[in-house]
TrEMBL record:
Coiled-coil segments: none
Species for this entry: Theobroma cacao
Domain called F-box: residue spans: 138-174
Biased segments, Low complexity type: 55-82
InterPro entries named among the record's database cross-references: F-box-like_dom_sf, F-box_dom, F-box_LRR-repeat, LRR_dom_sf
Region (Disordered): 55-92
UniProt lineage: Eukaryota, Viridiplantae, Streptophyta, Embryophyta, Tracheophyta
Protein name in UniProt: F-box/LRR-repeat protein 17
Pfam families, sorted: F-box-like
GO BP of this protein: SCF-dependent proteasomal ubiquitin-dependent protein catabolic process
PANTHER family in the record: MITOCHONDRIAL ATP SYNTHASE COUPLING FACTOR B, OS12G0601000 PROTEIN
Length: 602
């Protein structure tokens, strides 16, 4: 039987294969779609490049840190005739994240564009991003700046366009420091794991969960993000958070770089022990019946705990506050929302002696009284924010607040406090000169407004006897403040007259102020930008719009005027008599344009 013989012997074939392999290693990879020289940028056709090419190709290894990136060069060839030449990199201390798709409007026209460090699309190569052309004729640096503004779904779609785009998206994923991801219902865990594994440098993660969350998700995050510093998990109405306290405690203990943890839907924790030397911010919401709470976090500075509003909650807040004060001595901001807040809890907080406390928020504590305010004022005299919304304090408590915090307090929130009157609000604005924000929603309420005939029928006319009784309960409010910027009077149905003289006020909330009379409204606030008037009478809305437009017109009419020769009358000066330049006119037009006010009804 005849067998065909090879035309080349096996030894010759082996030597030819070795020679071909050696030639392949020496020949640079061909980049299709590029019609310009990769070294000098001139067209390739009929072009002989004069730029000296190096014989060896070094490999760059960059170590991402919070400081400017340090680059280590390792020569891959031992027989290099000339050392490779690279342009010096300038250090850049403000490294921006790669995926900034949530603030496209800010980043698109940012003048601080940088291609060094993490933002370089050619991290790990010796290519010049200004001269390298990828598929489609775009410079690599331009393509990088376009793709880095896409959301994760768009970035995955861009990777399927061509090879050049795919390589650029890979570099983007590797350079990403922050990722915000929405997990749709029914998404598999492998989907999240595949996305997280693309980002080895990830330090900030935000997940919007529309599917259930459990310990497997935490394990996936812990494995895929070894350098995670900040994690935020928010849940939709249909999603359920099944993470227990033990699982959360193990996650916090393992992530030694974790500095910020924010999580919603924590109704299944039951109890937890959090031990971390790096954690500084902790937000937990929807807590319910915690049997054990241990905070072993010596560097914790901000804590926010929101409990369920169910009456059968069995959490011992006094014990929790006592342990928090002993183990977290550096606390500066405390926010606790619970219907079980009481005067005893406030006493436990004052006994903790947190010297650095600057912001205190105790919300929905109907058993917090003026005695609680006295205890807070005696222990913490440097508060900048105080929120006692939903408490039972009265005007006497406001007086104590004004006596203790006149030089520090800038934000005061007293919404849903039924014992506060307009006199207490006026006293607070008069005695707190640094006040910039004040919330008095649902304080000046009309108890009979829900049963009034105007709500049951469309007729706004009340009987004379009923109207006379309501008139005794209505109150007027006069506020004059030079620094107040935000004022909220939502739901103050017992307010019938309002006078505001606040030159810095830019946001006013008058939602559901149903009994406020249009002829008793006076707004002398030239900086107003937003007025919320949902649920108000149409006449009141018209009065607000009229006064806002009058304020704007008064600003626009500040043009130079000149008195006549006989001194009898002031008239507008002609343009040629005006000493203002065209630049001043442009500045005036820009200022007037910013002062346009929006009356929000819906």
């Amino acid at each position: 039987m005849h067998h065909p013989q090879p035309h080349i012997s096996s030894s010759a074939a082996a030597s030819a294969a070795a020679a071909a392999a050696a030639a392949f290693d020496l020949k640079p990879a061909k980049r299709r779609g590029s019609y310009n020289c990769g070294r000098c940028g001139l067209p390739k056709k009929g072009h002989v490049c004069q730029v000296i090419n190096t014989d060896s190709t070094p490999t760059l290894t960059s170590t991402p840190t919070s400081t400017p990136a340090t680059t280590t060069i390792t020569d891959a060839s031992s027989s290099a005739a000339r050392p490779p030449h690279h342009p010096p990199r300038q250090p850049y201390s403000h490294l921006r994240r790669a995926l900034s798709f949530d603030d496209i409007d800010i980043r698109c026209d940012s003048p601080e564009l940088d291609l060094d460090g993490y933002d370089s699309p050619f991290l790990g190569t010796d290519l010049d991003p200004d001269n390298e052309i990828v598929s489609g004729g775009l410079p690599a640096g331009c393509l990088w700046e376009v793709l880095r503004r896409l959301p994760p779904a768009g970035l995955m779609a861009a990777a399927r366009v061509c090879k050049g785009w795919r390589e650029t998206t890979k570099r983007l994923w590797r350079a990403a420091e922050e990722l915000r991801l929405r997990v749709p219902p029914g998404a598999q865990l492998g989907f999240i794991g595949s996305v997280l594994q693309k980002c080895p440098s990830l330090v900030r993660l935000s997940l919007k969960m529309e599917s259930d969350v459990d310990a497997t998700m935490l394990a996936c995050i812990a494995f895929s993000c070894p350098n995670l510093e900040s994690m935020e998990i928010s849940t939709s109405e249909t999603a359920v958070n099944r993470i227990t306290g033990d699982e959360l405690g193990r996650f916090v203990a393992d992530k030694r770089c974790l500095m910020s943890l924010k999580m919603e839907g924590c109704s299944n924790l039951g109890g937890f022990v959090l031990s971390s030397s790096s954690l500084s911010t902790l937000w937990l919401s929807d807590l319910y019946s915690l049997s054990k709470t241990v905070f072993n976090c010596p560097n914790l500075k901000e804590i926010s705990l929101e409990f369920s509003r169910l009456e059968n909650d069995t959490t011992d807040l006094c014990t929790m506050i006592d342990g928090m004060g002993r183990c977290c001595p550096r606390l500066q901001n405390i926010h606790i929302a619970s219907v079980r807040l009481s005067h005893a809890v406030v006493l436990s907080l004052t006994a903790a002696n947190l010297r650095g406390l600057r912001m205190l928020s105790l919300v929905l504590g109907s058993e917090i009284t003026d005695a609680s305010v006295a205890a807070i004022a005696s222990s913490y005299s440097r508060l900048e924010l105080l929120d006692l919304s939903g408490s039972s304090i009265s005007d006497s408590g406001i007086g104590m607040i004004c006596n203790v915090f006149p030089n520090t307090l800038s934000r005061l929130l007293l919404a849903l406090c039924p014992n506060i009157t307009s006199s207490g609000i006026q006293f607070a604005t008069a005695q707190l000169p640094l006040l910039e924000l004040m919330d008095c929603g649902m304080t000046i309420c009309d108890p009979n407004s829900q049963n009034s005939p105007s709500d049951e029928s469309g007729n706004n006319e009340l009987p004379n006897s009923f109207n006379s009784k309501l008139h005794l309960m209505y109150q007027k409010l006069i506020i004059k403040h030079s620094r107040l910027k935000k004022l909220s009077l939502w739901g103050c149905s017992g307010l019938d007259a309002l006078c505001l003289n606040c030159p810095e006020l830019n946001d006013l909330n008058l939602n559901s102020c149903k009994n406020l009379h249009p002829e008793r409204l006076l707004l002398q606030c030239p900086s107003l930008q937003n007025v919320h008037a949902s649920g108000c009478q149409e006449l009141l809305i018209g009065a607000i719009e009229g006064q806002v437009s009058d304020n704007l017109a008064s600003v626009e009419n500040h043009f130079p005027c000149k008195r006549l020769a006989d001194g009898s009358k002031r008239v507008r000066a002609p343009n040629f008599l005006s000493q203002q330049s065209s630049e001043d006119d442009k500045k005036r037009r820009r200022i007037v344009g910013r002062q346009c006010c929006n009356v929000l009804v819906d």
